[in-house]
Amino acid sequence: MTRYILTWLTVAAGATLVPGCSTSRPTAQETVQEVHQLALSYTAYTYFRPSEMLIRKDEAAEAILREGGRSLLVSEALVQARNGYNSRAFCDVWPPRFADLAPLELSALCDCKDFGPNGSVLLSPWAHVDAAGWSLFEEDDVFRLERKTLVDAEVPPERIESILKGADRVLRQTRLMDIMRHNNQVLDVVASATEIGIIAPAEDLRDEDRFVLLHFDTHSDLYVDEDLSENTEGIGDYVNVLVSKGIVDEVFWVLPDWSRRPEAEHILWSDEPLGEVDVDTAYTNGPRLLELYVDEKGDIGFGEPVSDDVPVRRIVKYHRITISELPPLRGERTFLDFDADYIGNSGFGTDGCINFNPTPSQIYGSFEAVFRKLEAAGAEPEIATLSISPGYTPDESIPIIQAFFQDVMEQTGHPDHRPRPRGGNRSGDPGDRSAP
After folding, report:
1. Which of 62, 95, 112, 196 suits a disulfide with 353, CB 3.0-4.6 Å?
2. How far is Cα 381 from Cα 172, in angstroms, rounded to an integer?
3. Residue 142's beta-bridge partner residues?
């Protein structure tokens, strides 16, 4: 009942290591520990971590079953998977180096850029193994172990019902709701809302007609590149369109609470003056209150007018906050723009590979906090949209988040509005989104 795990951790000389990574700096380190040896193969991933694995029915598996039954088999398999992940994915100067890539297929991590302190790449270690969050199925020659989804996760129905009632109180007066695949399809919703009279035509827009945009997202979806000749209506700059066309006169970019974790905070909350950091065309670093100067041509100046020769038509305030900082909104026209990667982020296309893979309970906890605060702030959105954002949202989170919003629509009596696509780049190709 003894096995020996051999793991090799290669660390480049002078590499900057961060919490969760080994603090030693050998060129090759061999660690040996006595545990059960299981033959694991990984068949599904949520980007960096396995979400499904097969356990071969061999002598080790049978020994564990005899010793402690299925619960011990699950625990042993998860510990082995976690140890393998943490030993192969370590923090190093860019580019990351991995020993033996094949078992965990960690090459997706190479999409990261060196946004960590001193050029390091910050990765979240797999720290906690929760056997209750996994299901074990017996097949002919293997056991299949997969992470639970909403169907078999133990989220008390009364808790879900309570959160739905809170959402109902906030969204009962909403005039248009839509679940969409990609967030720039908000522009299709705006076009439909204009056709049915919720939004005034551009030529008739008065100050009192404009909306306060509540943008729940890990990404700003605002480009601050002054060389951008025109808005592409893509998933990374559609907020520019809403600002330029006068649909919104104030924006609250609401970042998730987990963005305050050390590996994310230095990226999203540096509070550097705009222009003194590399924003890579997407608004990430910079002042927590950014003033957008919209001139008579519809061009946007970031922190100052585009030109002294063109009069400024209005100044739109773009705030960067967390949910607890949302101000009173009673009496304001509000537009709720909710991206599912606010709840959880895969790390794809996001500076520093910032990622958070929530449990079903954490997903519902996030919704609960959001709707509780919206209600306390007196927000009554006239338009509410949810974008699923595949690729950016962890795969196993999407069915839970989408099902929740469908339940909200049923609770509030709103059908899922299906606006007619109006052209432009609505593909939502992840390559279109510099992030955050």
Report:
1. 112
2. 9
3. 56
CA distance 358 to 192: 34
In a 13 Å sphere around the CA of 336, the CA atoms on its Cβ side amount to 28
Which residues of the chain are in CATH 3.40.800 domains?
Answer: 157-432
Report CA-CA distances (Å) from 191 to 367, 384, 392.
28, 14, 25
pLDDT tens for the chain, 436 residues long, are 222 222 222 222 222 222 232 322 222 233 333 356 899 988 876 545 678 899 999 999 999 999 889 999 999 999 888 887 766 554 333 333 333 332 223 333 333 333 333 333 444 556 667 788 889 999 999 999 988 764 445 678 889 999 999 999 999 999 999 999 999 999 999 999 999 999 998 888 888 899 999 999 999 999 886 555 455 677 888 999 999 999 999 999 999 999 988 778 878 887 777 765 444 467 887 889 999 999 998 888 888 888 889 999 999 999 999 999 999 999 999 999 999 999 988 777 676 667 788 888 889 999 999 999 999 999 999 999 999 998 888 877 888 898 899 999 988 888 777 665 544 434 444 443 433 3
Residue 228, both tokens: 């951008």
Given CATH 3.40.1350, say whether it is the number of domain 157-432.
no
Q: Is residue 326 within 8 Å of 369, Cβ to Cβ?
A: no
Token duo for residue 27: 């060129």
